[in-house]
Amino acid sequence: MPPHGKPMDAKGDLITRDNVTVPAGSKIAELRARQDKLVYGQ
User: Fold this and answer.
1) Which of 38, 2, 41, 42 is nearest to 19 (CA)?
2) pLDDT tens, position by position, 1-42
């Protein structure tokens, strides 16, 4: 079960920020923030 407590609906479901959480300050969180800035310009 993902850390937010809700199980994924089915194998192969799209993994999104809404259904998967990562520790704040982790490398993956930093990389996602950089990616969001490039994609969304924020």
Assistant:
1) 2
2) 455 556 656 677 787 877 778 888 999 889 989 999 999 987
Count of the separate structural domains present in the chain: 1
Q: Residue 31 belongs to what domain range? A: 1-42
Q: Is the Cβ–Cβ distance between 38 and 32 less than 8 Å? A: no
Q: Give the C-alpha separation, 25 to 18, whole Å.
A: 18
pTM of the complete model beyond 0.70: no
Residues 6+ apart with CB under 8 A from 21: 2, 3, 4
Q: What is the rounded (10 degree) CA torsion for 10, 16, 17, 18?
A: -50
